[in-house]
Amino acid sequence: MANPPSFLHRLLNWNKKSAPETVDAEQYAEAFGQFKNLLLEQYQIRIQAKTAKRLPINLTAKPTHFGTSPERAALYFDDLTIESEDIATEIDKILNTHQRLLLIGDPGAGKTTILLFAAINILMDERREQKLPLILNLTTWRKREINGQETNFAKWYAESIIHTYRLSRDFVYTLIKRNAVVPFFDGFDEVAEESREDCFQKMGAYFGDQRNRQLIVSSRKIEYAAAKADAPVYAEIEVQPLSLEQIRKALKGNAQTQAGDRALLDAIDRDEWLGKAVETPFYLNTASFLFGKRQRTLADLPFKAESIEGRQEELVEMFVAEQMPEERDRTYLAFLAGKMEEENFLVFELLSMQPKWCGRILWYRLLLTMVVGIAFGFALGLYGSLSGFEGLGGELSRWGLFLGFLGFFISWQSVSSEDIHTWSWIKLRSRWKVVLFSVLLLGLLGGIAGGLIDGLNSSWSVGLVIGLVGGAVLGLVLGLQIAGTIVNFWLHLHNPYQRFWASLRNNAWIIPTMILMMTIAFLILYILRESLYKEILLMMQDSHFVLLIVSLVVSMLLLTPIILSPFLNHFALRLVLYFENKLPLRLVTFLDRMTDQHIFEDNRRTIKGKKQRGAIWRFRHKILQDYFAKMPDDPSYGLES
Fold first, then answer.
1. What is the pTM of this model?
2. Nearest C-alpha neighbor of 219 from the set 134, 106, 347
3. Whether 115 and 87 share a structural domain
4. Cβ-contact 306, 273 below 8 angstroms
5. Residues 220, 265: one domain?
6. Are 124 and 167 in a shared domain?
7. Which residue has the higher pLDDT, 309 or 422?
8. Which end of the chain has fewer surrounding CB within 10 Å, N or C?
9. Looking at the domain assignment, is residue 102 inside a domain?
C-alpha cells in the first residue's frame, strides 16, 4: 500500500531540481562493497544448489556463428580462440577481449552455471573491483507493457535489477550511471516469440557500439536460430554436450565415495538412451541423485521411453515422485510455478503473492473487511462497556464495525512494501524549502477546512486557528519526514517478513505526529474555548472515561501503522489461497522443505551451524519450473507410484 505522504511527495516535486539527486559517496561505497560480497556468496551457493552438490564436471565450449547472420558475423565478430577446455575459467578472458558475448547451448547444458562461474571470476578479480556482474533473466521482457505502450529498455533494465536483487531505485540508477554493471542476460529463449526481435533491437540501441559497455546474452540454440534479429554481440560460443568419456571419468572419480555413481556408470553402459540423456549436465545430476538416494540399480528404475527426450522426461518425473510423494505438495508447486510463468518472474518472495491469485476475490475482500471490522468492533465495544456509560459499548461497537470498511478499501490495493528509510540532518539542510512549503500548504488547507467545519457549528475563528495550527504541525512533521529521508541502497533479505517489518517501521512516524497534534489541539482549546476545555476536564474526572479515551487513542495509534503495512492483506490472502487448496497456510515452512528436497535453490545462509529461514526462492532449474507449470490438473499424472 502506498505510504500516506506519497501524495504530498508528488506535490513537493516542484521544489526539486531536474538533475538527479546527489548520491552520498560514502554511502554508495559502503553499499557497493556489501552488495559485492553478498553477490559472491550467493553465486557460490547457487552453483552448489544447481548441481545438488554432485558431479562437478568441467564444461567445454567452442567458437561458433550458429544462428547469427553471415553479414553480422563478417562485419562485427572478431576471431575467437578458446585456449582452455575449461570454459568456466576462460569466459572472463573472452569477455575482456571481445566485450560482448553470446552463449548458446541445449536445454540443461549448463549455460547458467557457466554464467555463475564467470560472474565469480569477475567478482574475485582485483583489477575489476568496480564491476558487478548481474545475472538478469530476459523472460520478463515484453514488446508492449500492460497499458499498450512499447516497453522502454532502459526502464525495463533498471526494474529488472531492482526486482531480481532487491535493491533500491537510487542505488540501481547510480550503478547504471557509473557503468558499474556487467549484465548477463540469461534465457533469451524464454522471451515470447513475438517479442524476441524487438528485445535485441532495443538492447542494441540502448548499449550502442561502446566497447566499454560489456554484456553477455545466453540462449538455447534452436530458439536463437529462429529469431529474426541478431544479438548485439561481437563473439559467440556454444556450450558442448558432455562426452561419454567426461561422464565416465567423473563417475569413476566419485565411485569410491558414492556407490550410486558406480551403479549409474554401469547403467549408462547398458542403457543407450540413458547414456545419451545424461550428456546434458542437469539430467546427469538428476540421474546421479536417483541412483544414489536409495542405492538403486538400473532394474529399480522403470524406464520405458525409447528416445533421448523420453528418457529425460522420465528422469524428471522419477525425481519429482521421489522428492514429493505427497500429491498435495505437487498441487501447491503446480499453482506456484504456473503463476510464476504467467507473471514472468523467476524469483519468488512473499510479496510476489497478489489478490488476483485468488479464484474468489470476493472472499478475500470480505475476509479483510470482517477481520478489520470485528477487531475494531470488539475493541471499541469492550472499551465502551468498561467506561460505565450506558449504551456506549453498543454505540462504539457499531462504529468499530463501520471502521471495518477500511478493510474493504485496502483490499483493493496490491500487496506491496517500500524501501527501508533512514533520516539525515545533512539531507534536511539541503532541502529546507520542502519543509517550508509543506508547512504553508497544509497549514492553509487545514485552516480552510477547520474554519468551514467549525463555522457550521458556532464560530469559524476557532476552527480556523485549530486548522491552521494543526495543518502547520502536520506539514512540519511530513516535511521533515520527506525532506530528511534517505533510502537504504540495498536490502539483504535474510527474513521472509523483512520487507513487511520495514513498511511498518516506515509508518511509525504517524504515532508521534498524532500525539503532537492532539496535544496542540488541547492547548488551543484551552486558549480559545476555555468553557469546552473545562467540560472535557470535568468528564475526565471519571476514571472509566479516562480509561476509555486512553485505550481508544493508544489503539488507534498502534493500529494505524499496521493497517498501512502489508501484513493484513498478506495474511488474508494466505488464508483464502489455503481454503482454495492452492498454497499451504504455513507457506514459508513448505518452501523451505522444498528447498531441502532440492526442488528450489538453497540460498539460505548458515549461522552458528544452523540454517536461516528462506527469504526468496527460485526453482533449481528452469526445467523443473516448466515441468510443474505444465502439470495437468491431476498432479499425479505421469508419476510412478
1. 0.71
2. 106
3. yes
4. yes
5. no
6. yes
7. 309
8. C
9. yes
Asked whether residue 160 falls in the same domain as residue 209, the answer is: yes
Neighbours of 270 (CB within 10 A): 11
Whether 533 and 526 have beta carbons less than 8 Å apart is answered as yes
Rg (Cα) of the chain, in Å, rounded?
A: 30
SS3 string, 157-182, reads HHHHHHHHHCECHHHHHHHHHCCCEE
Q: Domain total for the chain? A: 2
CATH number at residue 146: 3.40.50
Q: Are strands 606-607 and 610-611 parallel, antiparallel or unpaired?
A: antiparallel
pLDDT at res. 587: 92
Placement of cell 477500511 in the chain:
406
Q: How far is residue 506's CA from residue 44's CA, in Å, rounded to a whole number?
A: 33
Task: Report the interhelical angle of 111-124 vs 25-50 (nearest 10°).
Answer: 140
Pairing of strands 215-220, 100-105: parallel
Q: In the numeric block, which cell numbers belong to residue 273?
A: 538412451
* pLDDT band, residue 311 (cuts 50/70/90): very high
226 with 259, same domain: the answer is no
DSSP state of 211: T
Beta bridge pairs of residue 237: 63, 103
Q: Which residues pair with 181 in a beta bridge?
A: 132
Residues paired with residue 103 on neighbouring β-strands, in sequence order: 218, 237
**73: part of which helix (H) or strand (E)?**
helix 70-76
Closest residue by Cα to residue 346 from 596, 145, 616? 616
Tens digit of each residue's pLDDT (9 = 90 or more) over 76-107: 776 666 656 666 667 777 777 778 888 888 88
99 with 200, same domain: the answer is yes
Nearest CA to 502 out of 323, 281, 351 is that of 351
Same domain, 182 and 250: no
Using the 3D structure, point to which of 323, 356, 388 is the last residue of a domain. Answer: 323
DSSP β-bridge partners for residue 486: 422
Pull the grid cell for residue 348.
Answer: 519468488
